[in-house]
Amino acid sequence: MKIRFILAALVAASFALASESAYANTVYHLDLTGGGASAIGTITTDSTIGTLSAPNILDWQILLTTGVQTFSLNGPSNSEYFVEGAGLTATATGLFFNFGAADQSALIFENPVVGSGINFLCFNDTQGACSLDPSLVAVRTTGASTTFSIGSGVQQIASVAATPLPAALPLFASAIGGLGFVGWRRRRAG
Questions:
Q1: The dihedral of CA 164, 167, 169, 170: what is its sign?
Q2: How confident is the model at residue 46 (pLDDT cuts 50, 70, 90)?
Q3: Residue 132's pLDDT band (cuts 50, 70, 90)
């Protein structure tokens, strides 16, 4: 009877562990290059699936390179972001931007503030909401600016790396196995 109670408690704990990880933030890895420029880093969201808006983006660490110089956009500590329209969407495996949208969709990460035009990464739809270049990615550092295409329509701009199992999962599995073995020995002995 005691074994059953312990087993039930362990099963309840595993459900709690699973539901806690379901609400964890999602880190998307960005690796875009073109036109002699690159934007490499991470964008962290609140794990919302579907169309994203400004409150869904929690943090970002993006290294901009224009061939002339580099600049790091480090989350809200040195930069701001702006989401306009319905062009930014997320799945469990990637972030996507609709370069073919016509609703002035844009995603901008900019230093020191949005609108300053100093250091930024910008995704434009057909309306060219930032940098006036429709359907392109714009990368700018103080010394240079570059735009390039990664395709038309909906394109993946970042992906989720494979997630390792939580450290508690193997421990939980060995505990269940040990309890099963103890129960089997007791039944066999009794």
A1: positive
A2: very high
A3: confident
Q: What CA–CA distance (Å, rounded) separates 137 from 129?
A: 11
45-74 per-residue burial string, b: 16 or more CB within 10 A, e: under 16: beeeeeebeeebbeebbbebbbeeeebebe
Tokens for 183, please give them. Answer: 């129960």
Q: Residue 32 corresponds to which amino acid? A: L
Phi, psi dihedral angles at 94 (to 5 degrees): -165, 165
49 alpha-carbon distance from chain centroid: 11
Q: Tens digit of pLDDT for each residue in 56-83? A: 999 999 999 998 999 999 999 999 999 9
Task: Give me the residue label for tokens 């739809």.
Answer: 125
| Distance in angstroms (rounded) separating the CA atoms of residues 67 and 170 | 46
| CB atoms closer than 10 angstroms to residue 147 | 20
Question: What is the spatial distance between Cα 88 and Cα 130, in angstroms, rounded to a whole number?
Answer: 15
